[in-house]
Amino acid sequence: MAGCAITQREYLHYMNMFRGYTILSIVLVHGLTRFLDHSLWYYDYLFQFFGESTCIFLFISGFLFEYLNYEGLSYIQFVRKKASRLLLPYMFWIIPSLILEGTYLKEAVDFYRILWTFVSGVSVYNGAHWYIQLIFCVFLLAPVLHQVFKTSNLLMLILLGGGHFLVNNNG
Questions:
Q1: Are 98 and 114 in contact, with CB atoms under 8 Å apart?
Q2: Which of 43, 81, 117, 151 is the most exposed place for a label (fewest CB within 10 A)?
Q3: Is residue 4 within 8 Å of residue 72, measured between CB atoms?
């Protein structure tokens, strides 16, 4: 679409700073759970303070997604843009970790292992990157979600509540 103009919105510096804080918090909380002794007196305080960072980051992503609302882009252009900014860097991140797995674990890294790691986001040396797959699925469903937001607050509330129940139901 050559003649299609993309509407520019005001850049929100405070939101970008908040996003940076949550990214650092996510890294910190993952470091805490792996390397700190859980019995230390301050562990619970740190975990409580930084523990919900992923939820906050997801909220910020949704806010910025709706705020920026790439008007003027076709669905295919939108998905290509998100894939190039999200999936391509992820591939360059995941492949070296698979090479490390194959080298240090002395296991063959075949096409199916690469595919599984890419789809699941789980790797021995790379940790869990489920968020990449989650946010890309949200981007794929974006037109439907955007329409639901615009037409029915009740339906959106039911979807959010149902999603929350599915994610947090441990029984």
A1: yes
A2: 151
A3: yes
Q: Which of 65, 59, 55 is nearest to 143 (CA)?
A: 65
The strand pairing partners of 123, in sequence order, are 127
Sign of the Cα pseudo-torsion (146, 148, 152, 157, in order): negative
Summarize the chain as % helix, strand, coil (round to 5). 75, 0, 25
Neighbours of 1 (CB within 10 A): 10
Query: Does the predicted TM-score (pTM) go above 0.85?
Result: no
d(CA 49, CA 44): 8
Instruction: Find the helix packing angle between 142-151 and 53-68, rounded to 10°.
Output: 80
Closest CA to 133 of 120, 143, 142: 120
Tokens standing for 58? Answer: 């997801």
* pLDDT tens for each residue of the chain, 171 residues long: 444 444 566 778 888 888 888 888 887 777 666 677 778 777 777 777 777 788 888 888 778 777 776 666 777 888 888 888 888 888 887 777 777 777 776 666 677 777 777 777 776 666 667 777 778 887 888 777 777 777 777 787 787 777 777 766 654
80 forms beta bridges with none
